[in-house]
Amino acid sequence: MTLDQRAALAATLRHPRPTGPPPTIEQIRAGFRALMATMQVPGDIRTTPATLGNRPALLVEPAGDARGGTILYFHGGGFVSGSPTTALPVTANLVTRANVRAYSVDYRLAPEHPFPAGIEDTVAAYRELLDSGSDPATIVFAGDSAGGGLTITTCLAARDAGLPLPAGIVALSPGLDATRTGESMTTKAGIDPFFTREGLDRTGAMYLAGQDPHQPLLSPCRYADLTGFPPILLQTGTDEMLLDDATRLAARARDAGVDVILDVTAGVPHVFQAWAGSLSEADDALDRAALFITQRLRS
Prior knowledge:
Layout: H1 3-13, H2 25-36, E1 45-52, E2 55-62, E3 70-74, H3 88-98, E4 101-105, H4 117-131, E5 139-144, H5 146-160, E6 168-172, H6 184-187, H7 197-208, H8 220-223, E7 232-237, H9 243-255, E8 260-265, H10 280-296
Parallel strand pairs: 3-4, 3-5, 5-6, 6-7, 7-8
Antiparallel strand pairs: 1-2, 2-4
Helix pairs in contact: 3-10, 4-5
């Protein structure tokens, strides 16, 4: 247990909330880029700009010979910010630990491109991998935060489109409920050093653009039929307002007969895995995620 590391991280994140008008979308994006730029990225990787599903993507590979298989990665950022570059602290760590390549998709963002644009892009990226000859048994979906939610909704949309499903899903601190009805939205308010209800509602409204959140592709932990899904690994922290998004999805998966691992780490914030190298719990969680990936992939 690294109580000092966790306390220091929480203190860093829990800076005084700015007063005045809400931040603009440009300020939100700039702040997110600045935060993620403080994270450590492993040096033993190669990155190459790519295109997948008619969207920009980033191919992230181990520096040496990789095993067969592909991680299709969806970055976080509340559906309004983030990119494959901001996700590198997590993506690169998964790549080096699992020794497998990843394609990180630069899907369209709200408010310019609200729901369901992002899902359309991630499904198109998956379809291109399949059309290029990749066996679905050699593909794992992974993502964090909003991207963690996309691992589930992309799988739903792919299944509805008649596509074969990937070998597994890794969802890190996923956002899975646009209705914001989980008990942890209240019980973790003030404990979560990362989110406030006001901030989540503001970015959520940008993504929804007036759409009803009571539907599977927006609130899968409440409404999705997960029948036939591949094995799922859900990682979350006890200090998260989104904690119950993961716990309710796990229960839904279990009830649908899906293999699911609910991996909850005490005293850590949203997407704590991004602090690998400075938080022991982050390194341990990424090791567990990499093990899950290597067990699921069939070379």
